[in-house]
Design goal:
By secondary structure, the protein is of the alpha/beta class. The chain has 14 helices and eleven strands. The strands form two sheets. Strands 1-9-8-6-5-4-3-2 form an eight-stranded parallel sheet. Strands 7-11-10 form a three-stranded antiparallel sheet, covered by helices on one side. α3 packs parallel to α4, α8 crosses α14 and α11 packs antiparallel against α12.
């Protein structure tokens, strides 16, 4: 059940994509997602050199026989990135799926995607962006609603409206997300017309997620009210878990602090230290409103099997109405 155009396109068992998360989407975590029947996506931007990135791709290939993708990050970053170098490596290593995400469409890269025969997924937050990359040749498009953890864009459109609005205007398969944490949300996303579902926040509370147990425990205890938007003042709105660091960022923005001061709070290195050391207020972590539906810490495989089982049960209930 739940075989779709996305499972066919990507060669995966379930139409579930694990959202790319900075410092978290490592070879070990990506392979756990792919081994569980979904599509794991390696975050290229966490690697500082061609050599370390190439090693990460090889490590992922060694850990899974399932398909996985590489994300090329198009967001502005504190260090310059030449995505052509990452692209050289993933082509050379035989990775066949590439995901792009960010403020702009990858006009300088898409011709290379097509020439190399890659399956290209682009992630965005609105219809006009989706239409543009479809015209450029994207094979599938991911859209995430306002409930989403991480970058929310500027449009503030909820999942229930965004997905069907995009689906009715596109010819390529749509992968939808934003607040999806269980089988009912999975089924609802498909009912809205998506051919696949992207999940991020729920995967943070799995055994394989490379974040400290202190942080996982906090997420299990959080509610749908425990997220907030930050960095809107600098044109990079993100939904994050409402910890001390996130609240400090909001205070700085309210006081019209300069960008360098804001970056001292939201810098990725602080998040990385939080993930490793367990100081839950040290950095910020992207977190969607679906965190309120997290109640335990299963393996990724157990989570995916539960999602599919719950979706089948919910579909059976609807059919009996």
């Amino acid at each position: 059940m739940f075989k779709t155009a996305v499972t066919d396109l990507l060669g995966i068992k379930y139409p579930i994509v694990g959202g790319t998360m900075m410092w978290i989407s490592t070879p070990e975590f990506v392979s756990a997602i792919s081994n569980a029947g979904g599509l794991g996506i390696l975050a290229s931007a966490i690697y500082q050199s061609r050599e370390t990135f190439a090693e990460a791709v090889e490590r992922t290939k060694a850990l899974t026989r399932g398909p996985f993708a590489v994300n090329l990050n198009l967001f502005p970053m504190m260090r310059p990135i030449d995505n052509n170098e990452y692209l050289d490596i993933l082509i050379d290593k035989g990775v066949r799926i590439v995901e792009t995400s960010g403020h702009s469409a990858p006009e300088d890269l898409c011709a290379r995607f097509k020439k190399a025969g890659l399956v290209w997924i682009h992630k965005c937050v609105g219809l006009r962006y989706a239409l543009k990359v479809q015209e450029m040749g994207a094979d599938a498009i991911t859209v995430v609603g306002y409930e989403n953890g991480g970058a929310t864009g500027r449009l503030d459109i909820g999942t229930m409206v965004l997905i069907p609005r995009v689906v009715e205007n596109l010819k390529v398969p749509v992968i939808g997300g934003g607040g999806i944490s269980d089988g009912k949300g999975f089924l609802a996303t498909l009912a809205l017309g998506a051919q696949g579902v992207i999940i991020g926040t729920r995967l943070l509370a799995t055994r394989e997620a490379p974040i400290h147990d202190n942080l996982k425990a906090e997420l299990v205890g959080a509610t749908e009210l425990d997220t907030m938007l930050i960095m809107r003042s600098i044109g990079a709105t993100h939904r994050v878990w409402a910890n001390a660091a996130a609240k400090k960022c909001a205070e700085l923005e309210a006081s019209q602090a300069a960008l360098p001061q804001i970056l001292t709070v939201v810098a990725g290195e602080k998040a990385r230290e939080m993930y490793e050391g367990g100081d839950i207020d040290l950095g910020v972590i992207s977190c969607g409103q679906g965190v309120g539906l997290i109640h335990d810490i299963p393996t990724v495989k157990e989570l995916f099997e539960r999602i599919i089982r719950e979706a089948e049960q919910a579909l059976d209930c609807i059919r009996r109405f």
